[in-house]
Amino acid sequence: MNAPMMLSPDALAKIDKAVAKYPPTEKQSAVMAALTIAQDEKGWLSTETMDFVAQYLGMAPVAVYEVATFYTMYDLKPVGKYKLTICTNLPCALQGATAAAEHLKKALGIGFNETTADGRFTLKEGECMGACGDAPVMLQNNKRMLCAMSPDRIDQLLKDLE
Amino acid sequence: MGLPIPPFAVDLFGPDAVIMKGVNGLNWRLQDYVARGGYAGLKKILAEKIPPEQIVNELKKSALRGRGGAGFPTGLKWSFMPKQYSGQKYLVCNSDEGEPGTFKDRDILRYNPHSLIEGMIIGGYAMGITVGYNYIHGEVWDVYERFEEALEEARAAGYLGANILGTDFSFQLHAHHGWGAYICGEETALLESLEGKKGQPRFKPPFPASYGLYGKPTTINNTETFAAVPWIVVNGGDAFLNLGRPNNGGTKIFSMSGDVARPGNFEVKLGTPFAKLLEMAGGMRDGRKLKAVIPGGSSMPVVPADVMMATDMDYDSIAKAGSMLGSGAVIVMDETRCMVKSLLRLSYFYYEESCGQCTPCREGTGWLYRMVDRIEHGRGRAEDLELLNNVADNIQGRTICALGDAAAMPVRAFIKHFRDEFQYHIDHKKCLVAPYI
Amino acid sequence: MLEIELDGKLMQVAEGSTIMDAASQAGTFVPHFCYHRKLSIAANCRMCLVQVEKAPKPLPACATPVTNGMKVWTHSDAAVNAQKGVMEFLLINHPLDCPICDQGGECQLQDLAVGYGASESRYQEDKRVVANKNLGPLISTDMTRCIHCTRCVRFGQEIAGIMELGMIGRGEHSEIITFVGKTVDSELSGNVIDLCPVGALTSKPFRYSARTWELTRRSAVSPHCGLGSNLTVQVKQNRVMRALPRENEAVNECWISDKDRFSYEALNSEKRLARPMLKRDGNWQEVEWPVALEFVAKELQRIKGTHGAAAIGALATPHQTLEEMHLLQKLLRGLGSGNVDFRLRQADFSMDGKRAGVPWLGMSIADINTLDRVLVIGSTLRKDHPLIAQRLRQAAKKGTEINLLHAVDDDLLMRIANRAIVAPALLPQTLAQVVKAAAEMRSVAVPEAVRAVVVGVAVADAAKRMATSLTSGQRAGVFLGNFAEQHPAAGELHALVQALGEILGCAYGFLGAAANSVGGYVAGCVPGGRVPGKNARQMIEAPLKAYLLLGVEPELDMHNPRQATAAMRQAELVIALSPFQHRATEYAHVLLPIAPFTETAGTYVSTEGRVQTFAGVVKPLGETRPAWKILRVLGNLLGIPGFEHDSAEDAQREALHGKSEIFNKNNKLSNTLGVPPAAGGGLLRIAEVPIYAADALARRAPSLQQTRDAQPPVATLNRALAEQLGLQPGDLVRVVQDGGEAVVPFAIDDRLPADCVRLATGQPETAGLGAAAAPLTVERVAQTQKVAV
Ligand SMILES: Cc1cc2nc3c(=O)[nH]c(=O)nc-3n(C[C@H](O)[C@H](O)[C@H](O)COP(=O)(O)O)c2cc1C
Ligand code: SF4
Ligand code: FES
Questions:
Q1: Is residue A1 pLDDT above 50, yes or no?
Q2: Residue owning the nearest CA to atom 4 of ligand 2
Q3: How far, rounded to the nearest angstrom, does the alpha carbon of residue C546 sit from its chain's CA centroid?
Q4: Hey, is B376 helix, strand or coil?
Q5: Of the residues A25, A45, A70, which one is the last residue of a structural domain?
């Protein structure tokens, strides 16, 4: 029997649009897009969600799981409302990322890979985001890039997200 | 916040810029590009029905070399694409810019996306390919969205899609995004990822030219490589070559990061002295002294200050200086920087980003990282430097893809040039230079 | 041909070879882990690095193509240095627990570490620990030992056709895993145990029971499906400890099915019958062999005397040896009865008397790989013939078009070019359409024998597509599966296939349900010849006075279990020969323990007609005796001449007329067939035998019985029928057939044809039902009120 529709019609339409980019026999190519869309909608990727994506794209569930665990921006556990990922790689570090990361930890009272008690913030350490010239660089919920994140701009950000 | 406010100076990328000439950070749309003379190359080709071989020949003449890291001659690569192949062939752009220190493709994508689109369309024409994909680094989502918008513009204007500009030439181009895996910058890992799998590099041979995307002949180039193509088509291969040096044709965008006053991208002629580039980036931050430079992205060997100051920025000169031009990411380090700590961060990066399939890289990167970590944290042992070099030797040249080399080379170069610093850490359990943050 | 120099020796290798191929050809061992000749090349372990002239770095032998004039050194300093470097990396995170590892003694890593490992580790950091996974009842894990060669993953994707295992995560954090909460369910899954070069994946049933060096290795032949997989059986102190594949490229290659691998557990089960038993005054008593055999002889004489020899019948399973079946028929015919048969599940016997020879596969098994067009009729390939399915899967990958005509549409894990899924009653008609279309496409007349059933049919699209596929290839093959062979119109299907074979000019045949489906015919264990006799169906429909059951469990093995049970219950004498205790205690009069395939010498004739003889690998359990010996003694006791055999070999020689091959393999039917009985209306049952219910051994292997394939039967129907019956989730259904019933859960499968109920046979839960293909009625049994606890 078909699995219940796990995703909204809107999300499915987006996935269909991604599928259309590839040859009809290569639906699997859309798996990264599909998982991203699913994660956007659900907040994280549960087993059921991945199973659904597998079925939707005609893939083995474990193949979807392989993909979901290979790329670091998929969350296989719930994260806070705001997931902040800060690049600490060398170019960024040379331009103040280490201090920015320390500041973030202190301001939120958590370490990397932790979530604040109120469930609002999750902090992650990232690798090079390809934006080193704008260091320190952060991502908010994978999709919003924040540049030149000096400690005072971090304070501003946290206030804005309150 | 969001996209940083672009500086509005027209020579943002330097006075010698050709790819980014006239780009001011706001004029990214189709009409702006056309106003700068964009799509003239494509129109010319289609109007004059220029034979595909001629375009490849111009590229060969131009001495354009791949801007993604390996510096392979682009014209030669394009000539590998089988002409008589009857099935589907693919053109792929590598915008998975993840090599630490590199952020040039992002600027092309967000400030000048049509240069890439036009370059790929011309590539499709030159190699008889009708479908292309641009694989964009997952972390730059806003750039991915903007690129999708630019694709729509190009389609609406008839530059892209079926029967381009009313001719019988068709080319479809789609954007595909990554989601956090440096290894997908490696071209065969990128293809695997495009196919909806883990980004694990393939063993070569077969090379993508015969077995690429979906097993079909495929050509892959870097964003900047494609973006240079329209200019070459309009101005000729010789003109491009003459911008640079023999075997090092044209201009190159260098990403300046680290301890410089004004980090950013600068497009200069190949062969420009490093000192000049450093000056363009505002010189050393806070007037500190230069200590070391990684001239081609984090995977390339580090070069001490004196050598670097005497080196010109082109493939051959940097090779002579003992490193590689790579992706053109110049990471500048000043006198306050601890080399052990710097290497530690890079070693951690390769340990984190190893795809895990082949033994020397999967096991070796962790070993390297843990050893450097010990040394940095005062738990180094007398035999560690030898062991580090030996483990690096056992990784380098023995892996499926060049990530193994990328993890090994920095280790060897850092130890080679800054051995005393490492030794000091091991002997004294502390740092020779003042710690920085 | 390319000329290369390998370790200083010139040699010629075929174009497209790798350095590894060249080395194997030269008999040179290049150390490796991820490489396996049946799997795609991963080149990920890097253990096979070798030195190649002009190459700046060592190259992996497994993945590097040979070029003309190439010079390779597999054991030069540079090569060994690289190999040692890799070995060091492999060992840094590998536990050094060989003494307690189940793989100890047969571990490739352990073996190679002796040659390539350093005596002392330079790695001073903490070792990685990886959590174990639950892969189900057959495979045990110790994932810290995994060296990430991905053989197991590639096996699933490429050979089993289903990706159940994957490598998740990346870098040092990569792990082999199934999808969250899933087990490995492939019918070929056990092969990953052999493939795993270390002790990460080991056999769960075998776990910790013995060390390899304590085991003796003996050759055997699998007693299950018609393929005749070659086995190595490992024995410790007269006990079978495990079964492994014995490589035979022409038969099972290097694989075996899980049934071949794990059913040995039944040999050591509590359910074995260890002594002869007699029912005296309604009570079962253990007796000595002479007592039991004298009883049998006396009783058979009595029945013959009072009711005539024709009141005695003998049934054997197709898993019995050639020798056993030969002596059984000889015994019966010596008694004067022609009632002997081994085709227990067959419904249609109209072909008897019309066969030109022994029905078989129609080609060699290895030839299957050379076909470019295939039509399979009535087979759930994967489950009925796991390794033939595997061959077809490989062929399909290379472009062979597989066409399927069947009543169910289970995922066969291979590309099916065209399929027609029809109600069982429509199989012949649909096949007739294919015949008609193919004849038209080839512009030839429909062969006379089937013209009457073919001319009238209207060719539907699916049949046309199949005919187009079949007529467009170079080498076609047509196969009748178990379901077709057991079909009520099997004769018609056979005749149609023969016609199709003539039209296409191609081979056709039977996939062969059991180890001796061909051997039974060879042994003459079928009615016919000078003494007239009844076939298996007739012996049950018109019950006899006495039955001799050779391995047969009538409730589970027969086409109509309900009738079969009734026939047994009314008989005056039932003699059950079996390695196991079974339900015969309810109606039999004597139970004789016979040796299973590991305890007797014997012969199986595989579906391709391959004669495979084996010796017993352990001594018979308790008072168990080889059946051929028991039958010989009975022959003597009954005074029948010609029972002087000293060995199984003697019996085999007699059965094969002194030859070592089968010469009368022939699928031709000589005559026109009669028109088959019209199918009744109403709901039809689709009954197949589940993979682990097919024979006495598989039924009693505890680990196999815990797999998903061994779950109790479920009635499956399509949504329309479920709605018509008003079924609600959680309901049960009552299935009634021939006055017998079964109450089972239901499931919906919209790929099932209309008005059909799929309900397996061969399981105790459905043993009260009638013929596999007979009409039935179904009704809803509302969900029982669940009491909240
Ligand atoms: C570990 C690794 C990472 C790489 N990352 C990138 C990248 O981010 N962008 C890129 O264009 N090329 C990258 N490359 C190089 C590509 O494999 C390939 O050489 C390049 O895309 C070819 O294009 P080009 O000839 O135009 O340079 C990487 C290579 C390796 C081994
Ligand atoms: S070198 Fe590293 S990243 Fe490249 S294939 Fe091997 S394990 Fe993967
Ligand atoms: S190093 Fe931080 S974005 Fe590149």
A1: no
A2: B401
A3: 32
A4: helix
A5: A70
Residue B327 to residue B101: CA distance in whole angstroms: 9
Q: Number of C-alpha atoms within 13 angstroms, CB side, residue C349?
A: 19
Q: Is A144 on the interface with B (CB under 8 A)?
A: yes
- Nearest-angstrom CA–CA distance, B126 and B132: 13
The pLDDT value given to residue A5: 66
Q: Are strands C546-550 and C312-316 parallel, antiparallel or unpaired?
A: parallel
Does residue A44 share a domain with residue A91? no
Which subunits sit against C, judged by 3+ Cβ pairs under 8 A? A, B
**Taking CB atoms and an 8 Å limit, are B257 and A91 in contact across chains?**
yes
The answer to whether B355 faces chain C, any CB pair under 8 Å, is yes
Question: Residue C217: which residues within 8 A CB-CB, separation 6 or more?
Answer: C232, C233, C234, C235
Please indicate, yes or no, whether residues A22 and A45 belong to a single structural domain of this protein. yes
Most A CBs within 10 Å: which of C148, C153, C180, as the mutation test of the A interface? C180
Give the closest-approach CA distance of C81 to chain B in angstroms.
Answer: 9
A1 found inside a domain: no
Q: How far is the centre of ligand 3, averaged over its atoms, from the C-alpha of A124 (Å)? A: 14
pLDDT at C242 over 70: yes
- CB contacts of A70 in chain B (<8 Å) are 181, 198-199, 355
Q: Is the CB of B401 under 6 A from ligand 1?
A: yes
Residues 158-177 (C) with a CB less than 8 A from some CB of A: 162-170, 177
Q: Name residue, tokens 């088959």.
A: C676
Q: What is the pLDDT of residues C646-690, one digit of tens each?
A: 999 999 999 999 999 999 999 999 876 666 656 567 899 999 999
Could you report the predicted ipTM of this complex, rounded to two decimals?
0.95
- Domain-embedded: residue A91: yes
Under 8 Å between Cβ of C184 and C165: yes
Per-residue pLDDT averaged across C184-212, rounded? 94
Does residue A37 share a domain with residue A13?
yes
- Residue A154 within any structural domain of the chain: yes
A140 and A100, same structural domain?
A: yes
Reply yes or no on whether the pLDDT at B218 is more than 50.
yes
Mean pLDDT, residues B177-198 taken together: 98
Give yes or no for residue B66 CB within 6 A of ligand 1: yes
Domain boundary among A35, A70, A105: A70
C305-328 pLDDT per residue, tens: 999 999 999 999 999 999 999 999
Are both A151 and A89 inside the same structural domain? yes
For the segment B328-333, the average pLDDT, to the nearest whole number, is 98
- Distance (angstroms) between ligand 1 centre and the Cα of B67 equals 8
What CATH number does residue A54 fall under? Answer: 1.10.10.1590
- pLDDT recorded at residue C586: 95
Counting atoms of ligand 3 from 1, which one is nearest the CA of B103? Answer: 4
Structurally, how many domains does chain A consist of? Answer: 2
- Does residue B7 register a pLDDT over 60? no
Ligand nearest to the CA of B225: 1
Cβ of B400 within 8 Å of Cβ of C150? The answer is no
CA atoms within 13 A on the CB side of C542: 8
Average pLDDT over every residue of C158-186 = 95
Query: A101 lies in which domain range?
Result: 82-161
Residue A104 and residue A51 share a domain:
no
pLDDT surpassing 50 at residue C603: yes
Task: State residue C375 phi and psi, 5-degree precision.
Answer: -120, 125
Do A151 and A113 lie in one domain? The reply is yes
> How close is the Cα of A148 to the center of ligand 3, in Å?
11
Same domain, A154 and A88: yes
Mapping DSSP onto H, E and C, the string for C182-224 reads CCCCCCCCCHHHHHCCCCCEEECCCCCCCCHHHCEEEEEECCC
pTM of the model: 0.95
CB interface of A with C, residues 63-122, below 8 Å: 63-66, 69-70
C242 Rama sector, left if φ>0, alpha if ψ -120 to 50, beta otherwise? beta
User: Measured between CA atoms, how close is C155 to chain A, in angstroms?
Assistant: 14
